[in-house]
Amino acid sequence: MPANKPSKGRGGGSQPRKTAKKSKKKTSSSAAPTTATRRRPTQQRSQRRFDSIVEAAAQQFARFGVSDTTMEGIAAEAGTSIGSVYQFFPNKRAVFREVALQCIALSRQNYTGLLGPDPFSLPWYALLDRFIDGFRRHHAEHVLVQAVMRNLEMYGEYAEEDEALLRELSTATGMLFAGWVPDFPAEHRETIATMLVDTVAMMLIVVTREPRPDKKDAMVRETKVMLRRYLAGYLTTLPIPDDYEGS
User: Fold this and answer.
1) Residue 123's closest CA among 169, 180, 191?
2) Pick from 201, 194, 174: which is nearest to 186 by CA?
3) What pTM did the predictor assign?
4) Quick check: helix, strand or coil at residue 12?
5) Which end of the chain, N or C, is less packed with Cβ atoms under 10 Å?
């Protein structure tokens, strides 16, 4: 029996009505996501305020971590009142989720930008280097990304959307592979594309956590070498020239 379904009482009609009213209130409260934004801005002015709060929150999350960030700190960073923050977000987790979702959208845009209008104008190994270098810059330049990478323990707040993005990027990468080797089996091609996307994603996490700049560079360089050798075994008709040094 559903928890909010009223049961018959001994005293006639008044008791069931009271029970149903209480149950309805409880169901409505529990159904509201605790990390959903309270409202989305509909005017340009409120949109600017919303964006400044999200940007300020990203700065705080990247600098201090989610656990040591407060709603008051976000408001101060944004130069607005605490009431303005609560106008849009019910709690800190909701603010972080918005930061993460904007980070995901930004990563999708970055992939599209790196792909360019004609990805096949570059050899596959040069395109691979461009993607790895481009996403490394993406992580270094955008505070939204830095906020998310600093707080990976919060992954559950945006896991569904992130996994959807990874599947989307894997599908797009598989289409590139199909352009290079059209006769390659589709299922194997999808597996290879997933390996590529996941390997680069994991490398970026490790590089983010490494404090030594020279070690970061070495990790990126070795990832390129590893993936070139991996793909070269499949793209035998498109060999890497002996004089190619990479980027």
Assistant:
1) 180
2) 174
3) 0.81
4) strand
5) N
